[in-house]
Design a protein that fits this description.
Layout: H1 10-19, E1 23-24, E2 35-38, E3 44-46, E4 49-53, E5 57-62, E6 69-76, E7 83-87, E8 93-96, E9 102-104, E10 110-113, E11 116-119, H2 122-130, E12 136-140, H3 153-162, E13 164-170, E14 175-176, E15 180-184, E16 187-191, E17 199-205, E18 211-217
Parallel strand pairs: 7-12
Antiparallel strand pairs: 1-14, 2-3, 4-13, 5-6, 6-12, 7-8, 9-10, 10-11, 15-16, 17-18
Helix pairs in contact: 2-3
Length: 218
């Protein structure tokens, strides 16, 4: 039975609908090594080319929610590919890591395309994005990405061991033009213009080992 969109996924689709008027997307920024623009204080903004990993890396593990054994291979991908999951157990069926394929996001982010599911992809995607990788094929022989240590650290270590290769195509990027905010059931996320890249995150769980914690990254 195909997974149905949960209520929590409304926050994802609603956010995408509301974000469109608030961003500009430079289509052809100049090549790496040139100053492409200045911010309101006259500080130069540096453009970068797209990247992929330099070589393939393989890992295996167990799915947190399904308990299945999983083998995964990260492979270099051409420019403008993005992240594409390839179900090698299903004739190399491809599921792009795109918001349009989000099916379920309660306890894990699940993608669904034409009835084919890929679950618990958020930690690996965070490692790819945080590690500066723009394009990657992710071959997987089961339904769920392995949980590893429960964070993105193991994935990031693998990406670092593979190395990063610069490509010829230029990156496309969002420029935030004004604040946009969305929320559901006490959760909230907002994006707003800033002079620098900054993430401010707070969690609050009713458990003595967690409670309220805040983290700021710049």
């Amino acid at each position: 039975m195909p997974l149905q969109k949960c209520n929590k996924c409304a926050i994802c689709s609603d956010a995408m609908r509301r974000l469109n008027p608030f961003f500009s997307i430079p289509v052809n920024p100049p090549a790496i090594g040139t100053w492409v623009d200045t911010d309101r204080n006259g500080i130069a903004i540096f453009s970068m080319n797209q990247t992929t990993i330099s070589k393939s890396v393989v890992f295996c593990g167990t799915g947190l929610h399904t308990g299945v054994s999983v083998n995964v291979r990260l492979k270099p991908a051409p420019e403008n590919t993005g992240y594409i999951f390839v179900r090698t157990d299903l004739d190399d069926f491809e599921i792009p890591a795109s918001v349009e394929y989000i099916s379920h996001c309660s306890y894990a982010t699940t993608l669904l395309r034409r009835g084919v599911v890929l679950s618990t992809c958020e930690h690996l995607l965070a490692a790819l994005r945080g590690g500066g990788v723009d394009n990657c094929f992710i071959e997987i022989d089961n339904i769920e990405i392995p949980i590893m240590d429960g964070s993105s650290e193991d994935f990031l270590d693998l990406i670092n061991s593979a190395g990063i290769a610069q490509q010829e195509a230029r990156r496309r990027f969002f420029r935030v033009l004004q604040k946009v905010e969305t929320g559901l059931d006490g959760r909230k996320m907002s994006v707003e213009p800033a002079e620098r890249y900054e993430i401010d995150c707070t969690i609050d769980f009713h458990h003595p080992f967690i409670n309220q914690q805040s983290f700021e990254f710049t």
